[in-house]
Structure to design on (83 residues):
């Protein structure tokens, strides 16, 4: 399976998980395992969303205020050069 890195892929994975959790035949230990999996997926999804939100805020700030003398490496946009 190829890597899926778009927010639409994340959305699809989350809905697939919701469908698995909604399976009436899933009970007992299998249900508990699926709930743990769903919790882990939700935590990772939130981290991805937060990261995307930070990148968007950084881009908006850069667009509004233009080039800065120094941008910390962790906040670099694009190829890492202050363009």
């Amino acid at each position: 399976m190829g890597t899926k890195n778009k927010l639409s892929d994340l959305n699809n994975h989350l809905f697939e998980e919701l469908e698995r959790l909604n399976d009436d035949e899933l009970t007992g230990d299998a249900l508990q395992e699926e709930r743990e999996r769903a919790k882990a997926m939700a935590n990772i999804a939130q981290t991805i969303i937060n990261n995307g939100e930070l990148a968007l805020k950084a881009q908006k700030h850069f667009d509004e205020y233009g080039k800065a003398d120094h941008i910390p490496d962790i906040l670099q946009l694009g190829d890492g050069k202050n363009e």
